[in-house]
Amino acid sequence: MNTCDRREFLISLSTALAGLGLASAQSQNPEVGAVVLGQGKYQWKAIPGWGVLDEKTPVRDCHAMVQVKDGRIFLLTNHTQNNVIIYDKSGKLLGKWGTEYPGAHGFTLAVEDGKELFYLTDHARHQFYKVTLDGKVLRTWNYPEESGKYESPDQFNPTHVALVPDGGFIVADGYGKNWCHRYDAEGNYLKSFGGNQPDGANLDCAHGAWVDTRGGKNRVWVTSRNESCLKRYTLDGDLVDVIHLPGAKPNFIVPFGEFSIIPHLEGNAGAEGKPKNGFVSILGPDDQIVSNLGAPLPVSVDGKMATMGADTPLFTYPHGLLIDDEKSIYIAQWNSGNTYPIKLERV
Questions:
Q1: How far is 308 from 245, CA to CA, in rounded Å?
Q2: Do β-strands 35-39 and 26-28 pair in parallel, antiparallel, or remain unpaired?
Q3: What pTM was computed for the model?
Q4: What is the DSSP letter of 298?
Q5: From CA 61, how far away is CA 332, in angstroms rounded?
Q6: How many CB atoms lie within 10 A of CB 340?
Q7: In the CATH hierarchy, which top-level class contains the domain 3-346?
Q8: Which residues neighbour 340 within 8 Å (Cβ) at sequence distance 6 or greater?
Q9: Do the beta carbons of residue 188 and residue 208 sit within 8 Å?
Q10: How high is the mean pLDDT in each 10-residue block of the chain (347 residues)?
Q11: Domain locations along the chain
Q12: Are 320 and 252 in contact (CB under 8 A)?
């Protein structure tokens, strides 16, 4: 991003913040005295200019963000000049690595034998990897030929890896055939679910996944983005239930204590003439939305949730999301004009 692009981004962000006049999307917090995003107890405010760097450290699509134990924040972008950019919480550049991942997409932090590492997916290379924090590749997986779901490697376009409590993992083929493939702790293929299964157990853009261990149930949450819903399965791949999010395009699931945070790539899906800006939902322990950042709370029409959509231009296509150890939210955006992530501070 050149100086002009950075300046335009900062101006557009400041303009968006100044123009947040719709009470349904945000409220005035009397203790803070600033316009904030969200409703009720779950409100955040944007910090203009966080993490904006120069042309020596460009981004293309910003897909995911992770915070490691020592507090550093890692951003994954598909710009092959620097696939991974490392920040501190103030947005200062600490380092960067990676030039070989044109389809860098999913980024999952794991701890194995006491050491932190990443699972990284690349849908353009039809592979996923286990890598160290400084980018050394420890293992590479190609398409799961043994699953019998693929005729060629290029049909496998993985978007995310979710960790399983037994040390194994699940890889979501969100841009391919929409199967979720489970592997054991040694990295061996076990089984598949989702895909084109009947009776609602299918997935349509199985973009992000997460294994919820809260309450000891071990439910696998998967975003079925094109169906505007989250689907939950057992670890054996049996469909348990569906959380409908009309109009939204959920991308990932990020735990926040007993709550869950969902970045939506777009809103107002299928509503002609309405903005497609994305937004962020905070789901409570009962799976009901308690706050929408950048959008009104959902309303009910004839007993059903009405179509949701943003009413602020702040977000473009929210893709990946991190909530750090200070409860600040960082939003990595896809197709946003090569702009850096947006940081939101809790208020």
A1: 8
A2: antiparallel
A3: 0.91
A4: P
A5: 8
A6: 26
A7: mainly beta
A8: 1, 9, 50, 51, 52, 53, 59, 62, 75
A9: no
A10: 40 41 37 68 95 98 98 98 98 98 98 97 98 98 98 98 98 98 98 97 98 95 98 98 97 98 92 86 97 95 91 92 98 97 96
A11: 3-346
A12: yes
